[in-house]
Amino acid sequence: MRVIADTTPLRYLVFIDHQFILPRLYERILIPPSVQQELQHPRTPLAVHRWMTALPEWVEVRQPQKTGEAELIRLGAGERDAIVLAQDLHADLILMDD
To answer: Which of 28, 48, 76, 91 supports an S-S bond with 2, CB 3.0-4.6 Å?
Structure first.
């Protein structure tokens, strides 16, 4: 199963120390580089920063191959790139808060 994640679901699961449910449910999660960058933002909680310094093996960072359609331009970079990556890879699921 191909699962793509946006920033917010990962951020809050790590923040509440429940990120362990993701590999149990999906085995592997793919994120675009923009999500990786958003998770390392200076205002991101320290627990998330620490988690990002040593990503678990079940998280893979992958660059989308296409650019987003015009309708996606209003979204943030992480949201937009997660959708585009999901489209590129014909993902089974995308984890988002929007």
So the answer is: 91
CA-based nearest residue to 59, from 15, 95, 98: 95
pLDDT in tens, 35-67: 999 999 999 999 999 999 999 999 999 999 876
Number of Cβ within 10 Å of residue 52's Cβ equals 17
* Dihedral in degrees, nearest 10, Cα atoms 71, 8, 41, 64: -50
**Which token pair is 42?**
């200076």
DSSP string, 42-91: TTS-HHHHHHHHT--TTEEE---SSPPPGGGGGS-HHHHHHHHHHHHHT-
- By residue count, the chain amounts to 98
So where are the chain's domains? 3-95
What is d(CA 47, CA 55) in angstroms, rounded to the nearest whole number?
A: 12
8 Å CB contact between 97 and 10: no
Report pTM. Answer: 0.89
